[in-house]
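Anyone else keep sequences and structure tokens together like this?

Example one:
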Amino acid sequence: MESYRAENRDRWARTAAGWGARAEKLRRWTMPVSAWMVEAIEPQPGHDVLELAAGPGDTGFLAAELIAPGGTLTCSDFVPEMLTVAQRRAQALGIANVRFRQIDAESIDQPAASLDGVLCRWGYMVMADSQAALRETRRVLRTGGRVALAAWTAADENRWAAEPIRELLRRGLMEEPDPSGPGQFAWAAGGAVADQLEAAGFVDPRVEAVAFALRYASAREWWESQRDLSLRFAEATARLDEGTIAAVQAALAETAEPWTQPDGTLAVPARTWVAVASV
């Protein structure tokens, strides 16, 4: 797992710039997910809330508005490059009741029973030891405190992420990932999210599904977005010649036909589990 942790840190550090460049679009696309999570923890003025694996920070920033006055959001990530992205966005949005900390969710540097809520959007399932992270989350929550999370459903329900990888795999241009390890779809199976929460000691888990769409100007932008957000995809495609890239892009454009809108833009379906549980 140590090698995976090192690779994970490198992956997110090297894609932070891409996440920053696309942060505003990501915020709009994923607003139904963030809004569900924030509402689920029932933030109140004076509450202290932690966001783990915050990336650009948008989910936590929604909560920050609701816990003022008197409340503080701790926006955290385990790579400083992502925290820099979040800091810039907070400044642009004028959010003042937020502090930024580099935190590894598997070992949270925070006193026990010191927080009212924890948010983690699409983070736990890619961590080396998700159970350790959930147990740490439970430790830092006060009695009655809540955790809200998101974890992707199956790859076939998230073809915006799956199809570019599948096209490379079909052509032998990328190695198959380990299906048994951490990953984007590691918690996709029905019941997996609730099982993980209960195993960590949380009670009354409530799990729902949220559907939304990722919108691209064209199939080319879909390609470019995956390149910016996924280091694995970027590294695999960086080795390709122009002819192969053109062929893969053409295949993706054909795949995208069912999602093509009258104006030529794409609305690619996405689906995620969202969950809340209490201490």
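And example two:
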Amino acid sequence: MKAVICERCGPPEVLRVAEVPRPTPRADEVRIRIRASAVTASDIFIRSGRVKPSLQVPFRLMMGVTKPRHPVIGLVFSGVIDETGDQIRRFKRGDAVYGLTGFRLGAYAEYRCMPESDSRCHGCLALRPESLSDDEATAAAYGGLLALQYVDKGDVQAGDEVLVYGAAGTSGTIAVQYARSLGAHVTGVCSTTNVDFVRSLGAREVLDYTRVDAPPAGARYALVLDSVGKAKSSRLKTACKNALAPGGRYVSIDDGDLELPARRLQQVTTLIESGALLPVVGRTYQLDEIVEAHRFVEQGHKRGGVAISIV
């Protein structure tokens, strides 16, 4: 089968497409014919090895000391189950599924085996929402899990003022919609080109970080969600953090590892099927274009998710 190999950390050019053996599922696993993956911020960190100094040691121990421990990288997938082990009960051959692979990676490939039960190491798996394409499902899985994990930390109530910094990204687009589904009044922060787009997601107000340095006078937020990460800063981000209401909370997607419970992925599915969430895919690349896809995502100006078609 075809797969993307990363034999050392470095720039996008360290990635190459190669032929590797097709995996065989164990008794407690299903094998998925992957139709789409994605290039996420997590993939960029894993490929490049560039993390902040305080995380270097745990990152190396987890992902590999001098090179990725698992040479076939990739975290997100959508596809169809083509074989099941004898102990599988939740899924069957032919099921359309999506999810994340966990620390063992391997989603940049035509096939990947996954256990039925979820864990931090083994990832999570759920039936794919019928309304989504495989490309859209990859944005839903990654962006949805991130958005729900961190919006829920704010204990958002109906009528709360919520600000999403980085509202046009994979997790930001979902966070805006999720907070709105909870009854919050959402303010999105993005660049000029995405102002109308973020408003179309349901943001009541949109702040352009290239033009303003502070939220409106008197604004107070129950939750400020930083969905771009702490490595990127601006005067507006600082001002938004200082505009928290009494008892309000600032959370960043850098505050801990991405959690991978299947129940949360099921919640994402339910929200999509109810019409509350619609994942966004800004660009799609072919597997052979993986280097170009990583170059583009590394620039930091994408809208929604970036999918990798594997057909």
